[in-house]
Amino acid sequence: MSKNTVKQYISRVENRAIELKDLDKGEGYKEIYRSDKESVNLREEDLKSRIPSLIKELPKVGVTRYLLWEEYKLDYPDGFSYSRFCRKIKQYRKVLNATIRLEHKAADYLTVDFTGKKISWVEKLTGEVHTCEVLVCTLPYSGYTFAYAVESQRQEDFIHAINQAFLYIGGLPRVLLSDNLKSFVTKADRYEPTFSELCVQFSSHYGIELEAARAGKPKDKAHVERHVNIVYNRLFAPFRNEIFYSIYEINKAFLTGLEKHNKQNYQGKTYSRKDLFDKDEKPHLLALPKSLFEVKKSTQAKVQPNYHVVLGEDKRQYSVPCEHIGKTTKIIYTSQIVEVYLGIERIAIHKRNRSRNGYTTTPGHMPEKHKKYLEQRGWDAAYFSRQAEKIGPNTKWAIEQILQSKNLIEQTYNSCLGVIRLSNKYTPERLENACIRAKTTHRVNYGILKNILTNNMDLIPIKEERDLFTIPVHDNIRGPNNYN
Question: Which domains can be identified in the chain, with CATH numbers?
Answer without folding.
Answer: 3-96 (no CATH), 109-284 (3.30.420.10), 297-368 (no CATH), 379-459 (no CATH)
